[in-house]
Hints:
Number of domains: 1
Shape: flat
Helix content: 40-55%
Strand order of the largest sheet: 1-2
Structural class: alpha+beta
Distance between the termini: 30 Å
Number of helices: 3
Order of helices and strands: HEEHH
Amino acid sequence: xxxxxxxxxxxxxxxxxxxxxxxxxxLRTSGLSQVITEGKKSKLVLDQKFLxxxxxxxDTVFG
Length: 63
């Protein structure tokens, strides 16, 4: 995400930005986030329970 992507589209969508799309996919599949719909708007929010578990992980947990 340190390199800007020049997309010459009139109406770009999320998949037009591979780095952001990859982060979104990681958040959704890991369970760290949820999509909340409010009216016609949807937003991605972090699940605080899973975030605490994620932050508690370190290399010794897997080794």
